[in-house]
Amino acid sequence: MAVRRVPVIPTDVRVGRAFVVPSTSCAPPLPDPQSPVNRVPLLVAGVLAVAATAVVWSSHGARFGTYLGLGLLLGVSLFHSRFGFASGWLRLVSVGNGAGLRAQALMLGTAATVIAPIASGGLGLFGATPVARAGDIGVPLVVGAALFGVGMQLAGSCASGTLFAVGAGQTSILPALAGFVAGSVLGTGFQPVVDRLPGVGGVLLADHVGWFGSWAVTVGVLLAVVVATAVVQNRRVPPPEEPVPTARGFARLYRGSWSLPAGALVVGALAGLVFLASGAVWGVTSGYSLWGAKVLQGVGLHPEQWQFWRDQPNAAALAGPLLRDRTSLTNFGIMIGAAVASAAAGGWRLGGAVPWRVVVASLLGGLLMGVGARMSGGCTIGALLGGISTGSLHGWLWAACALGGTYLGLRLRPAFGLTNPKPDHGTC
Residue 33: helix, strand or coil by DSSP? Predict the structure, then answer.
């Protein structure tokens, strides 16, 4: 498809004492109207959502049903706001458009605001005790996060983005999911080697300045990130983001699309609710590791003999059903919720033929993300969101290393026929 190019004419930039309005090379185009509702996919996805909820609640109780329900809400929110990390980081590094990163800062600040009183007050549902853990800092974190950043740009999605894209019928992302699962379970196989690499214990801000102090420091740094991205954007004057089709009026609530800030607020709040319901931060990739290990068992292999799967609670998760695994339930919910949302928006459709180089990039990217997430203790959700929102230093270091990997991934993308945004493009 031809890329529309426009003259670079900066929009107005207003600089106040404490606020910078980011500029773009031109005004963003108006979004297209949405396609009609995909009635059959909506019916199928809706029935699946209701049936899955009924089965989990009746068979495993309210706690696990709540995990699935939160996943469904996350899937709807992620799709309607098209909220992810891969595209936002790509635009920032390639052309300096920081809109995505500013939305992510809002999401992180929202999650931190919800989590702080839960953790400080020891609040929890279903008998859960909230626990904030400081992730280890060392070679595995640095290398793993960088690998994840590279893989994220080759695959064109992050951990949560892969789930909602699959749910929305984007079959082109299936190789990334397959690679992600394979890389995650492969990472559990050499976890003892990773554990021997140099590293030190993590730092949890709340242990030093209390939960209010931790929240204040986190929000302060996030505000600095917002200002820094605005300054970078005003210097580079990138093209605006391509708008997605949207409904009008009240229908926008359930048909989409939502603005990035709206999506950031909802996703951040839901991440906090996951913490309240389970006592742990929202995660994605441990579910991929479990799925991969169960697949290996299904073909006659024995990952249960690996050191990683002999440790508790990993052994219990591998021995138990997937519908009693918190991360798997939220992952399933995200895919089903995204299917409902995309069908309601008229955007659910199976993709066509995908060039072989793109398939290779997607598969390789997923593999790198899986290995990287296992090495570094999480992904953009478990490590970055979970770490930063609970005041763990490793979350910030993970983000910095993954951003470096994004820079390398940006340069590898053309080798696989993938394009990068350019300053003279009409949109990015």
Answer: strand
Does some domain include residue 26? Answer: no
Element (H, E) at 396: helix 393-412
* Whole-number Å distance between alpha carbons of 287 and 276: 19
241-244's contacts with Cβ under 8 Å and 24+ in sequence apart are 241/28, 241/91, 241/97, 241/99, 241/100, 241/427, 241/428, 242/29, 242/427, 242/428, 243/28, 243/29, 243/30, 243/31, 243/32, 243/427, 244/31, 244/82
* pTM summary value: 0.93
Please, where are the H alpha helices in 61-158? 62-81, 86-95, 99-121, 139-155
DSSP symbols for 130-165: ----PPPEEHHHHHHHHHHHHHHHHHT--HHHHHHH
Q: How far apart are CA 258 and CA 125, in angstroms?
A: 30
Give the type of residue at 373. Answer: A
Residue 424 counted as domain residue: no
Q: What is the pLDDT of residues 62-85, one digit of tens each?
A: 999 999 999 999 999 999 999 989
245 found inside a domain: no
Single-letter residue type at 117:
P
Q: How many domains does the structure of the chain reveal?
A: 1
Domain encompassing residue 279:
39-239+255-416
Asked whether the beta carbons of 283 and 378 are under 8 A apart, the reply is yes
Q: Which two tokens stand for residue 215?
A: 């929240």
> Taking Cα atoms as reference points, which of 188, 372, 161, 158 lies closest to residue 289?
188
3-class secondary-structure state, position 392? strand
User: Helix or strand or coil: residue 12?
Assistant: coil
Within a 10 A sphere around the Cβ of 265, how many other Cβ atoms? 19
Question: Would 10 be classed as within a structural domain?
Answer: no
Q: In angstroms, what is the C-alpha Rg of the chain?
A: 21
* pLDDT at residue 197 is higher than 60: yes
CA distance 377 to 375: 6
pLDDT at 167 over 50: yes
Report the DSSP beta bridge partners of residue 200.
137
**Which residues, including other chains, have CB under 8 Å from residue 330's CB and lie 6 or more apart?**
67, 68, 70, 71, 74, 274, 282, 284, 287
